[in-house]
Amino acid sequence: MTTILLIPVKLLAKAVLYLTAAVVGVIGVIALFASAILQRLGFYAGGAAILAAIIMWIMAEGSAALTAALLGAAAILLPVAATFISSGIIMLKEKLLDVSADIELV
């Protein structure tokens, strides 16, 4: 009798896991797309900021050069970090699908 009652609960759990995996997958793909665009823009902006920092350092503007160099490094590294985060979101989707595959309806 309990087996008959558990089948709808297991089916509902599978459905919720599949829907959650779909939502997480969409969020991951959108984040990956946005981070890819930001990565391209960040490389150009970061390179320009580091070039400006070098020019400022040559002109003896030490504190402004340090600020520009840090902003350039941040412009390069933050989109890369966003790419790793979006890859983690996509791996979470795969883990949700693996968990839903382990649920047996017996």
Give the strand content: under 5%
Order of helices and strands: HH
Low-confidence stretches: none
Instruction: Provide the helix percentage.
Output: over 70%
Query: Radius of gyration over alpha carbons?
Result: 23 Å
Label the structural class.
mainly alpha
Sheet with the most strands, sense and barrel status: none
Count, helices: 2
- How far the N terminus sits from the C terminus, by CA atoms, comes to 12 Å
Q: How confident overall, as mean pLDDT?
A: 88
Mind explaining what this structure looks like?
Helices cover 92% and strands 0% of the residues. The protein has 106 residues and is mostly helical. The radius of gyration is 23 Å and the shape is rod-shaped. The longest helix has 57 residues, at 2-58. The protein has 2 helices and no strands.
What is the topological layout?
Elements: H1 2-58, H2 62-102
Summarize the structure.
The chain has 106 residues and is mainly α. The protein has helices at 2-58, 62-102. 92% of the residues lie in helices and 0% in strands.
Keyphrases for this structure?
about 110 residues; mainly alpha; about 90% helix
